Amino acid sequence: MEQLYRALQLHQLLITSKIPPSKERCLRYLECSASTFKRILDAFRNELHAPLIYDRKSNGYRYDTLDGQFNLPGYWFNQSELFALLMAEQLFDATQSGVLSNEIGRLKTQIRHLLGPLQLDESAAKIRLRTVSRQQLDPEVFLHISRAVLGEYRICIDYRDSNHKQEEREVSPQYLLWYRDNWYLTAWCHIRDGLRIFALSRIHSTESLTKPAMKCTDEQLSDLLGNGYGIFAGGVRQQAELLFELSALPWVENVCWHPEQQQTYLPDGRLRLSFPYTDHRELLRDLLRFSGEVEVLEPIELRSMMISTLHQGLEKYQEKE
User: Fold this and answer.
1) For the chain, which end, N or C, has fewer CB atoms within 10 Å of the first or last residue's CB respectively?
2) Of the given ranges (202-206, 228-232, 281-285), which has the lowest mean pLDDT?
3) pLDDT at 120
């Protein structure tokens, strides 16, 4: 990606400068040596066939066109660079309707401009993304929270928690998190006096405050998500011991459930999986997808909750028989 980055830097400098930039200015802007700059110039002329010339009169470089402009072709990207740009465009398309639509529209236009003749409809269709379980959120809320994160100031949010309780929270935003096709805000809650993760879909309104945000340490932020399973934080760290049947292996054995997971194959082919968790809610929901193909061995509390949940579901069907 280094060649792509340098080329885009130089191209941006050439098309935005009011006068042709000198060699010294180019070197400062690109933060490169004279030999690297020469290789970039050679690539522009020989590989991109760009009409780049040195104008002795103005002592600078420019495109030899009537308006001084030139469009970089798309065919000069290597495979990984082309894939990255196509993937970025697909990600923009997958973004929720209305959320930063104007800004994303401008970014998509720039990507199509960079891809040039390679950006055909049939080419873009060869890379597709599909999101599931995506929750709707208010575009204005997303915009206000994004500004607070970048501006590092406190906000007051009107939040509905998972128990449907509505309350106001004064928070210091730390960062936005994209997790399982949904947006979350990691922030220090001044009401609960601790780090919390808020689903943006459950934030109904925000109010900017004049107080600066309290900054958390990198260690605090890492500990929030690093200890257990999934997005839920807090609680005592426990070890889940799971036994998966053969039929579940295609969807289980190559999955990273947790960075510290350990797996062992039994003689009959079944898989024993072990990893830490601190909150059972997300883990229990994920295990229920394999209800007839997984057994919770340890801890006993998690096993009991799994059994109770399965019984509750079965009772609902038995009542209708």
Assistant:
1) C
2) 228-232
3) 46
> Where does the chain show beta strands of DSSP type E?
52-55, 60-63, 153-160, 166-179, 182-189, 194-199, 203-212, 238-244, 262-265, 271-277, 294-298
296 beta partners: 242
The amino acid present at 104, given as its one-letter code, is I
The DSSP bridge pattern shows strands 238-244 and 271-277 to be: antiparallel
Going by C-alpha positions, the residue among 60, 83, 100, 99 that lies closest to residue 4 is 83
Q: How confident is the model at residue 11 (pLDDT cuts 50, 70, 90)?
A: confident
Q: What is the DSSP string of 84-116?
A: HHHHHHHHHHHSPTTTTHHHHHHHHHHHHHHHG
d(CA 98, CA 16): 30
- Burial letters for 24-58: b for 16+ Cβ neighbours within 10 Å, e otherwise? ebbeeebebeeeebeebbebbeeebebebeeeeee
Residue 60 phi, psi (nearest 5): -160, 175
Residue 308, C-beta contacts closer than 8 angstroms, at least 6 positions apart: none
Q: Which residues of 177-194 are buried (b: 16+ CB within 10 A; e: fewer)?
A: beeeebbbbbbbbeeeee
Confidence of residue 225 (pLDDT cuts 50, 70, 90): confident
pLDDT at 80: 60
Please enumerate in sequence order all residues whose Cβ is within 8 A of that of 164, keeping only pairs 6 or more positions apart, or say none: none
DSSP 186: E
pLDDT, tens only, 115-146: 555 444 555 566 666 777 777 788 888 889 99
**What is the per-residue pLDDT for 75?**
47
Q: What length does the chain have?
A: 321
| Cα 191 to Cα 170: distance, rounded to the nearest angstrom | 7
Could you give phi then psi for residue 15, rounded to 5 degrees? -85, -15
Burial of 100 (0-12, 13-18, 19+ CB in 10 A): middle
